[in-house]
Protein: Recombination protein RecR
Amino acid sequence: MYPKPIKEFIDKFAKLPGIGPRQAARLAFWLLNGPKETRQNLKRVLEGLDKDARTCGLCHYVIENDGNDKCHFCDNPSRDHKTICVVEKETDLATIERSGTYKGLYHVLGGLFSALDTAVPKHLKLPELINRIENRKKETEEVILALSPTHEGDLTAHYLERLLKPSKVKITRLGRGLPYGSDVEFADAQTLSGALESRKEIK
Ligand SMILES: [Zn+2]
Structure:
């Protein structure tokens, strides 16, 4: 139905989270009929993701490609370096930061276990988390598993509990407030603060 450039656009954009083929088609025509400058700006920011962004060597949060190896959390001496908050994704970290309650460090896992596949997902930054704790055993006192209260979040948390147990650090999970099936990313500041403050130790 559509000519090749539009079809290709739809194929690529429909794969993005939250965008289906119909929205992709609307986007394609909106961009095509709009000013050229909008398309060029989009091209520039997409290239910037490759060129100007990379991940922190410690927590795997995104940093600017400016020669510094650590992000502004890991590199900040006024943060609490004894506590590591494990999150599924960068946008969860942003929500926790906005809540203003948490002043420790983070670890971005890059996903969760799948409910359909029992294998340990290879792309998760699990070995990196273990290495990080092993390398600074005296420094890390608590690991907060701030994973969404979903089946996938539970599977991941249970695996992490077993994985972290030998390291003898205190392991906690978010407490009350977040309804089952919800996503940390979309929690409001008050709920998230409450869940962080009422976090429970896993023994
Ligand atoms: Zn970092």
